[in-house]
């Protein structure tokens, strides 16, 4: 009986906290997503890095619109996912120039 209780609790946790995050993931071909960021938000690649498991993390931003996006690409499949995006981007040097703390 304890097994079913824990299974139900785990299922409830998954449904409430984890499932919505997976349901809103936007993934696709890297070139198409990069072209979309450039055309819709005027975002250009600002930097990149490789994770421990080999995934490529890229940062895009638009100085004109102050928007930013972070993507992760799986090198085995070539699929790129948008994992975070936002507004009010400030370059560190520019922010320090006007006295903002980051």
Q: What is the 3D form?
A: globular
Mean pLDDT score, rounded?
A: 77
Number of domains: 1
Largest beta-sheet details? 5 strands, antiparallel
Tell me the helix content: 25-40%
Write down how many β-strands occur, each being a DSSP E stretch of 2 or more residues. Answer: 5
> What is the overall number of helices?
3
Euclidean distance between termini CA atoms: 51 Å
Ranges where pLDDT stays below 50 over 5 or more residues in a row are: 1-20
What series of H and E elements makes up the topology?
Answer: HEHEEEEH
What's the layout of helices and strands?
Blueprint: H1 2-23, E1 26-29, H2 30-41, E2 44-50, E3 56-62, E4 67-73, E5 79-86, H3 92-97
Antiparallel strand pairs: 1-5, 2-3, 3-4, 4-5
Question: What this model shows, in words?
Answer:
With 102 residues, the chain is of the alpha+beta class. It has one domain (26-97). 39% of the residues lie in helices and 32% in strands. A five-stranded antiparallel β-sheet has the order 1-5-4-3-2, with helices on one face. Strand 2 and strand 3 form a beta hairpin. The radius of gyration is 18 Å and the shape is globular. Mean pLDDT is 77; it is low at 1-20.
